[in-house]
Structure formats: structure tokens, C-alpha cells
DNA sequence: GCCAACGTTGGC
DNA sequence: GCCAACGTTGGC
């Protein structure tokens, strides 16, 4: 068993909020719609069942961490890439060679909102990738120390 | 709605 | 392989 890893995963609440995750069957959702190679590579190559996930709401009135989750599957193809009616359809992807992979994410627990301004104030979190200027990556690795500091602040 | 920052595309 | 143009992200 490899060492536990931690991630921050952004989701737009209008697309899939923490409440949507809580209401989902088995409180689990496939993390569909990622169309960025770096984020895909994290899911495909590095994520393991049991990894910790900070669930983050982006592009909304109150951006921030809103819950804790767990990676609950290894990587498999994102079905939406094959669906012509989907916003995430990719005509260059085939079933033989799918371009986009995803993992399942299962809710651990909802938390209070740990807001973006609050994250910025925390000295232990100063190096979080998500807080760096210009960062747009929807999935970023989180260090064990950052994970611990976030948990401490969530109480 | 604005805009900075970044990723992708495509012409050469 | 370069790089300009374009599209997207995401906070404000």
C-alpha cells in the first residue's frame, strides 16, 4: 500500500455541489468533465483508492473548501466524452483509445465553508497551488502538512 | 461584466 | 518548433 496522497478538486456548485455529492447514490460521483491533460494525468497516473480529497467550490459567490472526500476507484474512461449530446463530448476520442479518464469520489463529510480569503490568511497554506496567482488547474496535489492544517482549521 | 493568466490550436 | 490568435477559467 503506497503512502496516502491528498488532492484538492474544484467543482462548480452549479455543476456538482457538495450537496449534490451528498445526495448521490452511495454519496459517490464520477469526476466527469475534466478536459485538461495535467488534471487528467493526476487522476489516471497518480490517484489511488483511499486518497484524501478537499472538495472545493469554484466560480461561485463563496469559493472555498466545503467538504472532505475520498478517491474511491482507480481511473476509467469518462463516459461523457462519447456522448454527442454532452457538453463534454470529444469527437477525437474513441472507445479503443479514450482520451479522458476519471476516478470516483465519495463523500467523507460536509464541512463548514473554509473560504478562499480564509485560506489566503493561513500561513501554513501559503504554498498551496490553488492560491498561486493565475492557477486554473481543477485538480491539484495537496501536501500532508497542508491537509493537516486544513483539517485543524475546519475543527 | 471585466480581465489576468493560462492552455490549445493551427499556420508557417 | 515557434508563436499569434483564440478560448477558458475563475476571482472580483
Polypeptide structure, described:
This protein has 155 residues and is of the alpha+beta class. It has a single domain (6-154), classed as ph1033 like domains (ph1033 like fold), CATH 3.10.590. The chain has helices at 13-16, 18-23, 37-46, 116-121, 144-154, and strands spanning 6-11, 28-30, 52-57, 64-71, 76-77, 101-102, 104-115, 139-142. The protein has a six-stranded mixed beta sheet with strand order 2-7-4-3-1-8. It starts with 5 loop residues before the first strand and ends with a helix. The relative contact order is 0.23.
Brief characterization of the structure:
It is built from 5 helices and 8 strands; from the N terminus they run βααβαβββββαβα.
Judged by helices, strands and strand pairing, the structural class is: alpha+beta
Widest sheet: strand order?
2-7-4-3-1-8
Which whole number gives the mean pLDDT? 95
Q: Which term fits the overall shape?
A: globular
Q: How many separate domains make up the residues?
A: 1
Describe the secondary-structure layout.
Layout: E1 6-11, H1 13-16, H2 18-23, E2 28-30, H3 37-46, E3 52-57, E4 64-71, E5 76-77, E6 101-102, E7 104-115, H4 116-121, E8 139-142, H5 144-154
Parallel strand pairs: 1-3
Antiparallel strand pairs: 1-8, 2-7, 3-4, 4-7, 5-6
The chain binds a DNA duplex (12 and 12 nucleotides) through residues 10, 12, 36-38, 58-60, 63, 116, 133-138.
